[in-house]
Amino acid sequence: MHTRTRTRILTHALAAAALLALHAALAPATATAAAHKPDKPIELFNGKNLDGWLGCLQPKGNETAATWNVADGILHVTGQPNGYLYTAKSYRDYKLTVEWRWSGPAPLGRDGKPRLRNNGVLLHMQSDDDARLGVWPRSLEAQLQENNAGDFFVIAGVETAELRALRDKALAAAGNDEKARKNALNNRRIQKARDSSEKPVGEWNRYEITCRADTVVLKVNGTEQNRATGLNVTEGRICLQTEGSAIQFRNVRLEPL
Description:
The protein is mostly beta strands. The protein contains 2 helices and 17 strands. The chain has a 17-stranded antiparallel sheet that branches. Strand 10 and strand 11 form a beta hairpin.
C-alpha cells in the first residue's frame, strides 16, 4: 500500500517571471460534499492561479514539490511525482471541456526507450483515502495517454455496463483457464471506438466530456470516442493527473446541460 499525501494548494506570484508557484500543505481527509449541478458556465481554471483546486501527491514528503505552476493562462504540469489536482467542489450533470498538449520529451522506460506520454482526467472522484490503487482515488478516468485519448479506465471499484459486458464475455471465453479468468477480472479498460483523433505532439487537443446521470460521453477534438453507461457513481470531484509526463492544460470549464 502506498502512502499518500493530501495537500492544500497555495499559489504565490513570482514577479520577475510572472509565474505562480504552487506550494501544498497537508490537508485532513474530507468527505465528498453535496454535488453542484451547474446552471451557468464555470471556469474551473481561472488562468491566473489554482484557486478552487486541492492536490494529492505521492509519496509522503513531496507536499512542497514544484509539480504545478501557472503562467500565461496555462497550467504547467511537470509529471513528477504521481498525483492529481482535484476541485474543491463536487459536481454532477455537466459538460466539461479540457484542452491539453504535451510539453516535454517522452519519458524513458527501464530499457532506456521512449514510452507513451501519460495523463488523464478523473471524473466523479469520491474520497481521496481509498488506497486500492495507490495514489489514485475512486473515479472514472478519461484517458489522455498518447494515442489512447478516449479510453476509459475504472479506478478502485467504479463499474460501467460496458465493463461488465466485457468481463462476462472474457470470462465465458476463458472457461477453466485460470490465467485468462484472472486477466478478465482485472481488466479496467474500455477502449475507444475509433482510431486516434488526437493532434500531433505539441498541438492543443480538446476533450468534451458530457456527464449526465449514469452516462459519460467522451469526444476528442470533436470525434465521439467512447460512451459509458450504467455507472455506479454519478457525481464527484474532477481531477487532473500528473503521471510521469510534462503536460499543459488550459480552458478547463463546465457548462450546464
